[in-house]
Known about the structure:
This protein is an alpha/beta fold. Helix content is 41%, strand content 12%. Strands 1-3-4-5-2-6 form a six-stranded parallel beta sheet, sandwiched between helices. Strand 4, helix 3 and strand 5 form a beta-alpha-beta unit. Helix 5 crosses helix 7. The longest helix has 18 residues. The protein is elongated.
Amino acid sequence: MIDSFVLPLEPNETYTREGFRLGVNQNLFSALFSPDHLWVHGDSAVGKTHAMHILVSELDSAILVTDDEYELTGLEAFSTVVLDGIGQWIGSAEKELQIFGLYERLVRAKHRLVITSGWKLERLEFVLPDLKSRFNMFSCYHMLPLPPEEQLGFLQDLVKKKGATLSTEVGRYLLRHVTRSQFGLVQAVSRLNEESIFRNRTISIPLVKEVFSL
């Protein structure tokens, strides 16, 4: 059995299913864990990378590649290969050829390719028409951002799990001035909780300003 890998290494303990809010993306995990080749696209900070870490961590044989300089040869040994941020490979004939070769080897091995992008396929300028045509056959999932109130609820739930509370006012301030990314919010809450305990203070707007130098 081949273990799951993430390249380059990331803080996997924060990329968990428990720390991910589906919200309007109720069918996301069904798409992620289907056997189809998959193209996932959506705006920045909607949780694409977080979702890919969940996918890889829950499979026996998977790899997540986030660096376009990483060698793709041999990755067909994994049953699922995830290329996070495909835009960094597109536009270079050499890199597109590497992906094309990887895809063909995965198909022969009856393995799967999952790709994330900030844009729809049609908006990317491919050098190789054949690669674009292959990607056109992929299943497609559009990840949507959580509505504002859903983001607030997610944030308050994160704080509650730490044994603390977060007012609506402070939560909205965090969302306006720190981050709206699900992963970013997980990190922000962890840092705020640590600082709150260390300084023996409640989580408040003044504390947020101090911790994040706002």
